[in-house]
Amino acid sequence: MSKINARIPEGPLAQKWTNYKDHQKLVNPSNKRKLDIIIVGTGLAGASAAASLGELGFNVKNFCIQDSPRRAHSIAAQGGINAAKNYPNDGDSVFRLFYDTIKGGDYRAREANVHRLAEVSNSIIDQCVAQGVPFAREYGGLLDNRSFGGAQVSRTFYAKGQTGQQLLLGAYQALMRQVDLGTVTLYTRTELVDIVVVDGKARGIITRDLVTGELKRHFAHAVVLATGGYGNTFFLSTNAMGSNGSALIKAYHKGAMFANPCYAQIHPTCIPVHGESQSKLTLMSESLRNDGRIWVPKKKEDAEAIRAGKLKPTQIAEENRDYYLERRYPAFGNLVPRDVASRAAKERCDAGFGVGTGLAVYLDFKSSIERLGQKTIEARYGNLFQMYEKIVDENPYETPMMIYPAIHYTMGGIWVDYELQTNISGLFCCGEANFSDHGANRLGASALMQGLADGYFVLPYTIQNYLADEIATKRMTTNEPEFIEAEKAVKDRFAKLMSIKGTRSVDSLHKELGLVMWDFVGMGRNAAGLKIAIEKIAAIKKEFWSNVRIPGDLVGMNVELEKASRLADFIEIGELMARDGLNREESCGGHFREEYQTPEGEALRNDNEFAYVGCWEYKGDNVVPELHKEELVYESVKMVQRNYK
Amino acid sequence: MEKIINITVKVWRQNGPKDKGRFETFKLNNISTDNSFLEMLDILNEQLINENKEPVAFDHDCREGICGMCSLYINGRPHGPDDDVTTCQLHMRKFKDGQTVTIEPWRSAAFPVIKDLIVDRRAFDKIIAAGGYVSVNTGGIPDANSIAIPKVDADEAMDSASCIGCGACVAACKNGSAMLFVSAKVSHLALLPQGRVEGARRAKAMVAKMDELGFGSCTNTGACEVECPKNISLSNIARLNREFLSAKFKD
After folding, report:
1. Domain residues for B128?
2. In this complex, do A176 and B138 lie within 8 Å of one another by their Cβ atoms?
3. pLDDT (tens digit, 9 = 90+) per residue, A61-75?
4. Is 3.90.700.10 the CATH number for A268-407?
């Protein structure tokens, strides 16, 4: 028996979820309050799961590293959330949302999960409206939609350019209501530092109080990880500074498979890098591509003059501009999926047509402002334009924005089955932290959909199928040897970090790792480069464990110690990403291997050999992990080369 | 255009809620004006670590002005000298070569200092827990378009809902009042039919919790509105007062 079994329900694709719900085991109300659930993370997935499970009557403990659950980085999602409502009557359906997501993911996602996602998408919108999420509306009072990359329908619901904020506040408020009712206990400024497994089942976690430095043991009948993605492996990304992959690495060390680590999404529209002291990259929402046109100068000498500051973009005549996305992809134009748009920008800049520092292209609103008026553009994107102006000190109503791709989202993550359960019994994973729904590339406005689908409408069902068999399990005292050992291992690890007393700051090492990742495991990868990356990451690991400097103490608040602990885990993730990328000898979605491309420079998949989920099993420190494969079987969709022309 | 400046930073250092606290002064040279304010603090911390000293602790996370985690009182203003931005969006081009920059934590009885520039804002969560929500459970919800909402109401609700919960309003207020924060949530929900149902109960519960947690009363000076990075309007406070009074009259 393989270590991984996706446990996809029987029946035709469109019936699977209904069949599952009809036959799954449930927990009766009086037993629910005897069952404890730990949820780590308070973003869209974590907060919605904690609130929903609390409402059902389970005893929930919810953890976050920030000072409040409302800070989770879901809050920064700008553009919107997809659903198959078909309110605009433009031909949308559950199947079409499912199909677009599978195709957008370059045929590397699990069919049954994606169909379920599309099925529950409509309920999410209903739920959020009931919570008071102020979605944009038409003058008639009904909900407005906009379009997003990779779709030919308008199915994206939005709240100005702050959709993530409004959805998260909806989930946060639902969560705080449960906190008030006593069903959820909240632990802020508290970080998961290990997972406790007893007799093969996840039974709790060890946490570190980020204010006091104190370690604590927590028991639960099931543990849910909803800690987001690992994009910060690259140091510079659109993620929040605190976003990290440490919970995933702890799960991986305990035997959970890490699936498709190499699938990282590079977002095409971010504000370009300004210099070495840059700490993070700011995203400009994909929704801007609805009304903005992307271009670079047609003539190299114009691009050179712009870079030298001798020409302004507004001085380049229309016929001397290369709207390269419209030229290459006439059917989708500026709304091609993110991976395609990112690579096209890199291609133009590598060819010498870049503007700004040379690593930037223009996103121009001139024709939209002429067509719709500045007021309309301001109403749609006002806050984004303001954000751009504050950072770059240029007015995007007058001169085109400069943008360049940046790491944004990680499709890979902890492997889960149809029930969102990892291969460790009782350990669940939802939201960006798992691998399941986006294949090799995520479509815009689908992350919010997945986070809330998992938390509101999937996990509250599937976790009961597990917990129904746990009603006889008594609460543990946390004095069991497994808890004591786990806490001791954590204590030793922190003591070791503090004892290094080297000369390099955590950030300086993290920046070094980030450059290796961007150069060799970024937008364009090849076998030679990936091998170099693995070597360089090993050297960084050695340098880290022998020469990192962490001032301060183990006791009390120590920000550098937090960062160091997370960086140690990012180093492992970086290596895993490179290894997975090297193994996957094909191009698909966000994973572009330069050796495998069509004559037109598009990603060339190899379905015969690589139509599988690459699942990595930890085998020990400095030991090569073992690859397991979950074959992807498509019953309702035919795998074809993606075509956005 | 990018310039390079030298500055002096005077930073509040405090080891915990019981420590008395003091200012420490540092010189920082060759700072690019394209750096954000927090990147300037990153540079300061890198310098301190290289000198084997403890870096300055400050709250920050998204660094794009939406999470509400950053919280500095810079040269006497919450979130510093620029308008309509959070500290993380403030850039060094707002400072002059040779300038002294004074950085303090939010100062309010309800927000005790944890360390250096980091304060405890859990009081805000407690206010939300007291009633800042619509009491609906997950599932069993009518279709999203079953109630039409006038666009003006939805837009106004959105403006109130833009609050990021940073606490600048409290830090700006002489009395340390949380009225702008509370009123933004009360208004957001009261403007929508879904939230209207519990409007009176919500206003009373949130105001009672605010008072209980040690926030002061409203000064009516409007300092909070001026310093709010998200332009939350004082009209929200007027609405809260109306909601609160009409709820009290009904009692």
Report:
1. 122-250
2. no
3. 999 999 999 999 999
4. yes
